[in-house]
Amino acid sequence: MSDTAVATEKPKTSFRGSGGVRGWFGRQPGWVRAVVALAAAALAFLLPYVGDIPLIGPQLITEGIDWPSALFNMSYYVLLALGLNVVVGYAGLLDLGYVGFFAVGAYGTAILTSKDSVLYSHTGWAWLAAVPVALAATMLAGLILGWPTLRLRGDYLAIVTLGFAEIIRIVATNTQTFRGDRGFTGIPHPPGTWNGKVIFGVTDAIPYFWLGLVVIIAVIFGVRNLDRSRVGRSWLAIREDEEAAEIMGVRTTKFKLWAFSIGAFIGGLGGVLFAGEQGFINSSTFVLQFSILVLAGVVMGGSGNMAGAILGGALISYIPDRLRGISVGGTDLYEYRFAMFGVVIIIIMILRPQGLIPSRRRAMELKDRAKEVAPL
Amino acid sequence: MSEPHMDTPEELDRMNARPIDEPAPTGADQILDQGVRDPDALLEVDHVTLRFGGVVALNDVSFSLRKGEIFGLIGPNGAGKTTCFNAMTGVYRPTSGAIRFQGQSIVGKKKHEITRGGIARTFQNVRLFPEMTALENVMVGADAHHKTSVISALFRLPRHWQEERSGRERSLELLEFVGIRRRAGDVSRNLSYGEQRRLEIARALATNPTLLCLDEPAAGFNPAEKAELLELIRRIRDTGVTVLLIEHDMRLVMGVTDRIVVLEFGKKIAEGTPAEVRDNPAVIAAYLGVPTDAA
Ligand SMILES: Nc1ncnc2c1ncn2[C@@H]1O[C@H](COP(=O)(O)OP(=O)(O)OP(=O)(O)O)[C@@H](O)[C@H]1O
Ligand SMILES: [Mg+2]
Question: Is B129 close to A236, i.e. CB distance below 8 A?
């Protein structure tokens, strides 16, 4: 949106006046921002080679897991955080069962492609062919969860969504079709060859990370476009005062369902990428902690803000992977990851309750609340 | 969507099926003209009763608004004025009775449908979107008639740009109209109380209403601010919008309205021009705190 249309007084639609790096960024002309964003994206593509940087590089990369695989893990966690941020951060709908959509995406892919699938004789598709169907299934799952929970808010909604994810996990664990612990093997990898070699093989995770990055960038653009439009305004209005929003003409039902299914779609993207990289999935991946972890990432990074969600999502994946292979008293630190997260989150919430990169609106909300508590 | 206060469908059917010219239940107010259908009416509140458990917030209330007038709805605290707005905007469903807007029943319609149909309102306790800028608040109202779909927003199709631009321009005009254009970029919770009240009016006007309902817009204003508000209400009317005004301040209401309905304990106790209402003994009694039965 250009502010030039109102040259006389220059009212702002966003909070571009604020200080700090983001304040500076916001005040720059469009082309500067585009260049900075492009540079950031280019650097992200170079992340697999971080280890080659003298001195700091070796400190950053993981030991217990090869670095490109750790980066790929980060990429699907970031996708999940971005998707959950739409549901929780933008529309204000607390979803504790978000891993359910990741599972639907992954299982959708598996069941259409794996030779272990009951459908194999009919389908046995390539990965790419399964992707649109799996994604459609996750969006449908989003609607199925969204529809009956439309009237629920806050803690009630959280409980129902939690149940939703558990139902998916239990169905996956206990039914013959979804094969429980045995899981699905031989899920095909994404297609493509380069100089006569397959791009997406089993040894090198770098192409998968790059693929994840491309998807992340597309998602960032899409979510940003939605946020800065009628859709984002409607979500925000719903979050702030649902009834007033409806009385002002916002179709609350429609936009809440969209939030659910867009969030589900992004989670499903994470799922299809995961299945395509691993080649194998089983029900033990989709445990409740997974949902909680992603939510913790979003909150830690700064709910309602994409940069925060990206950082939070990356950290919840990076930290445990970085700890892998470091053993203290005979136990791998990785085993302590949840305990450590607990501590880290508590510390962050004390020092920076709005998250590491707070949404400007949320920051304001909290600041005002603090003022109310302790007037100067 | 079934809401807790709703009645069974059978009951509602029966209610809607009730002939509109059925004689009103008789009471102390039978002298008032009840149920006379006015073909020019913009809004008809027709024998509306609304109960909250034991509390009868509206008791067989009828009145109708004509296009282009400024209509006052007054009464002491707890008389049922806000409840009447809530019934008209779909927040509460009348226990019985009908509400028609431009000849069509609006009972049971969704809140956002009623808004798009042409009834906009403000709230007694300001209910802005506090973290949005003033401009964004108004744009939410303007969005009521926009058609940008999620797909056109996602891919920035021409409709998105076009509606975003026109919505923004119209919203800025409305901020200018209510006199807070210079605050357009400020977060609405940082606006002064008076500015917030004006912003609510701008947001309601952005939905392009035929009827604008203002719930005590001058509450807490000093005399100078009240005078400005009166001016604004007249200007709104001059743009062709019918105004329904709830107000406590008798002098303010008398000065601006064409006709007035007085409620007390959920009942209509008087209706007429300001002069007629002012001299009505029941109204005087109500405002002095004497029970109407004694009047
Ligand atoms: N949601 C509700 N549940 C129960 N009772 C309600 C509810 N809303 C209103 N009432 C009751 O209905 C009656 C009318 O309330 P209403 O708010 O319409 O009065 P009002 O005329 O707007 O008064 P005021 O001038 O104080 O705003 C009051 O007795 C009130 O307590
Ligand atoms: Mg009231």
Answer: yes
The residue range of the domain holding B163 is: 128-204
- Flag whether A368 is in a domain: no
Strands (E), chain A: 193-194, 197-198, 327-328, 331-332
Residue B156 falls within a domain, yes or no? yes
pLDDT in tens, A23-60: 677 777 888 888 988 999 999 999 999 888 888 888 88
Residue B81 in contact with ligand 1 by CB distance below 6 A: yes
Q: Are strands A193-194 and B267-272 parallel, antiparallel or unpaired?
A: unpaired
Q: How far is A293 from chain B (nearest CA, A)?
A: 28
CA A169 to chain centre: 19
Range of the domain at A79: 64-286
Structural domains of chain A, count = 1
Instruction: Inspect the interface and report whether the beta carbons of A251 and B112 lie closer than 8 Å.
Output: yes
Give the count of domains, chain B: 1
Specify if A119 maps to a domain.
Answer: yes
In a domain, B143, yes or no: yes
Minimum distance, in Å, between the CA of residue A253 and any CA atom of chain B: 10
The verdict on residue B295 lying in a domain is no
Span B31-67, pLDDT tens digits? 344 445 566 789 999 999 999 998 999 999 999 999 9
A38 lies in some domain? no
| Domain-embedded: residue A369 | no
Residue B191 lies in a domain: yes
Task: Give me the interface pTM, i.e. the ipTM.
Answer: 0.83
Q: Give the position of tokens 């059917």.
A: B13
Residue A113 touches partner B, C-beta closer than 8 Å: no
Q: Of A199, A94, A204, nearest to A153 (Cα)?
A: A94
User: How many Cβ atoms are within 10 Å of B108's Cβ, its own excluded?
Assistant: 15
Question: How far is the C-alpha of A101 from the C-alpha of A41, rounded, in Å?
Answer: 27
Closest CA to A238 of B183, B184, B132, B200: B132
